[in-house]
Each structure stands twice: as structure tokens, then as C-alpha cells.
Design a protein that fits this description.
six-stranded antiparallel beta sheet; 1 helix; 369 residues; Jelly Rolls
């Protein structure tokens, strides 16, 4: 049985700072109404004199109710966060319970209620309240509450923030990761200068010392590991911004196959990870094809084609010849190990080939890198 798969690959740069502490609050500036806030009483969006942006939230005090807005965020026990709120007030009586605070939970169990800021009172302009707080060891949820409790007056809140702070070890790891990716990006730029032009906008180089293959197409450069390792994808660089999208040090192959018998309700799976491979280059006038051929493994033959075009895109193809009676159930291709750009995690997104396509924001929250 022969199966073909075609994938079009393009790289998009992700810009940002190196050390990106993670913001957990959704819509903290109240720019999209009260989206993200799970509860509210006597709380309305107000566009008069927001601290920033176009809107803030206004709590109109009443003497018989707790007037509030709140939002739950996921937390990690023992980790430190920075809680920040801006507030202004009008005619709030002295001693009124007007404040920003938080409740901490482990599942449905309340671990404690914490009020890290002084109360808001009187009439005054915008004031910043900010502090670092550490979660109890068993905590997994934190409820952030902005309130004016059973009191007259008005309080406005804006720019609510609850930031997960990186530990010293995490910052050191990010520095090391950034340095290795920066070196990889610089190596790609150097190879671009040394590579031979084989078609319009397309360059190719074989690094004889490293045994690696370098292919550039438009603003994107790919580096494949040595043939005895099956030419795994080791580098994916946006040449225009100097951004490396792969963290060096991974060891996964370029593809992984799962085969099952070609009969209904067959669950026995044969897993194939192709081994050593050879390559050949087929240049043309406007395209160039890198063809990677894998020797037989468990009766399976695979051929990968990476076609670089003058339009700046690469088109990846996979052809599998499986033994009689077996069909390809799942093809992980191309496999990219340790994905992660050199940028702000919250500014990242991942294009997921699901149905008509999805953009998954902050993908590092759900994948390992």
C-alpha cells in the first residue's frame, strides 16, 4: 500500500522580550465589557476617565449588598505572583470595606482569604496597588475580587493584573535556551552566505564536517541533521528577524508512523521510526526538490520530499509503501522536537491543521518544549 501526504510549511516570526512573566488575568483592562469575569454585582463598564484604554469598571455602592467583580485564575502551589490593581474613588466612607483581595483554593476547599492592599476610601484619583504574593503549597485556583462591600460611594477599578513570575532557575534556563537558539540562528545566517544558489530565491549547502543539510527558501532556512540520524529537522530560522523556532538538543526523527491492518476494527499497531537515510537534490528553474529516502524498516519504505518554490513556501511530501495488508493509521510528519521561539510566550500562536485551521494562542501552556 502506498500513501501520500502533502504539507505546506511557512514560518512566521514571533517577536518579543526574552523574560516573559505570564499574565493570567483575562480582560484586565475591561476593554471587552466584563468578559473573563465570572461574577459581578452592581458593576458596569464606564468609559469616563479610565486609567488606560477606553474603559474601566465602576462599582456603584449600596448599603445592603456586596458590590463586586471577580475572576478565577489557575495557580501553582508555592509559586510567586505579582498582583496589581488600579483604583479611584468618590464619596467612599472612611472604614468602608472597599478593597482588592483574593481567595485561594485547593479544588473546592478554601485555603484562605488574603487582603494584601490598604482599603480605598474618600474621593481620589487613580492609585496603583501592587505586591508579590506566594501561593500555599496545595493551591490550584485563585479568585481575584474587587469589591465595595455594603457601603455608599463609588469605586472604579482598572488594569487588573496577576502575573506568574519566573523563578531564578527558570530565568537561567531561558537565558541558556536563548543563547543556544541565537547561536543556531547565527549559524544559519553564516550558511546562507556560503550556500549555493540553485534556483530563484533558493540556496543549498551540505556541511561536510557536521553532515547537515541546509536549505533556504525566501526568508526561511531549514537545517536537517546527519543522514545516519535520518535527517531530523534541527533548525527552522526566520532569516529576516534572526529567529530560531527550534530549541537545540532534541533527538526525535523527522517522522513517525503507526500502521494497522487494513480491516475494520483492527487495533493492533505497528510503530515505525525510520532509521538512516540518503538524499538527493533535484534543482529546477523555479523550484528545487530535496528528496530523502529511508531504507526498509519492518517492511516499510518512506520517501520525504521538500519542494522549495520561488514563492517562498516549501511543500513537504511523504510517501509510504507499507507491507500488504497494512495501512497508515497515523503519520507524525514533520516532527519538530523542542519547539519554542525566542520571544514573549503570550505573543506566540501555533497554527494547528484541524478542520479549516485553528490558531492556538500561548501554545507552551499545552505542549512541552
Amino acid at each position: 500500500m502506498s500513501t501520500r501526504l502533502l504539507i505546506v510549511v511557512a514560518a512566521l516570526a514571533i517577536a518579543g522580550c526574552l523574560h516573559a512573566d505570564i499574565e493570567l488575568v483575562v480582560n484586565g483592562g475591561f476593554e471587552t465589557d466584563l468578559a473573563g469575569f465570572s461574577g459581578h454585582v452592581n458593576a458596569d463598564i464606564d468609559r469616563r476617565e479610565p486609567r488606560s484604554g477606553d474603559y474601566c469598571v465602576r462599582l456603584q455602592g449600596t448599603s445592603d449588598r456586596n458590590n463586586y467583580v471577580q475572576q478565577d485564575v489557575r495557580v501553582e502551589g508555592g509559586r510567586t505572583y505579582r498582583y496589581t490593581v488600579w483604583a479611584r474613588s468618590q464619596d467612599v466612607p472612611a472604614g468602608a470595606d472597599a478593597k482588592a483581595y483574593y481567595n485561594v483554593f485547593a479544588g473546592d476547599k478554601l485555603l484562605g482569604s488574603f487582603a494584601p492592599f490598604r482599603r480605598v476610601s474618600g474621593t481620589g484619583g487613580w492609585r496603583r496597588y501592587s505586591t508579590e504574593v506566594t501561593m500555599p503549597d496545595s493551591a490550584d485556583r485563585c479568585c481575584l475580587i474587587l469589591q465595595l462591600y455594603k457601603s455608599a460611594g463609588v469605586v472604579w477599578y482598572d488594569d487588573v493584573s496577576f502575573v506568574r513570575l519566573l523563578t531564578a532557575q527558570e530565568r537561567a534556563a531561558q537565558d541558556a535556551r536563548h543563547d543556544s537558539q541565537q547561536a543556531s540562528a547565527q549559524r544559519a545566517s553564516l550558511r546562507l552566505e556560503q550556500a549555493e544558489s540553485i534556483a530563484e530565491g533558493i540556496r543549498f549547502l551540505k556541511d561536510e564536517e557536521m553532515g547537515e543539510l541546509f536549505l533556504s527558501c525566501g526568508r526561511t532556512a531549514y537545517t536537517f541533521g546527519p543522514g545516519e540520524q535520518g535527517f531530523p529537522l534541527r533548525s527552522l530560522v526566520d532569516l529576516q528577524t534572526g529567529t530560531e523556532f527550534i530549541v537545540p538538543g532534541g533527538d526525535s526523527g523527522l517522522l513517525r508512523l503507526e500502521l494497522r491492518p487494513s480491516v475494520p476494527y483492527a487495533y493492533a499497531t505497528t510503530v515505525v521510526e525510520p532509521g538512516p537515510a540518503t538524499y538527493r537534490l533535484e534543482p529546477g528553474e523555479e523550484t528545487a526538490r530535496l528528496v530523502i529516502e529511508y531504507g526498509p524498516r519492518q517492511g516499510v519504505n518512506c520517501t520525504v520530499t521538500v519542494t522549495a518554490g520561488a514563492d517562498g513556501l516549501t511543500r513537504w511530501g511523504l510517501e509510504v509503501q507499507a507491507p500488504k495488508g497494512l495501512g497508515v493509521w497515523l503519520a507524525d510528519f514533520p516532527r519538530i522536537d523542542r519547539l519554542g521561539a525566542q520571544g514573549d510566550e503570550q505573543a506566540e500562536y501555533l497554527a494547528v491543521p484541524s478542520r479549516q485551521g485553528q490558531l492556538q494562542r500561548n501554545p507552551r501552556a499545552d505542549i512541552a518544549y
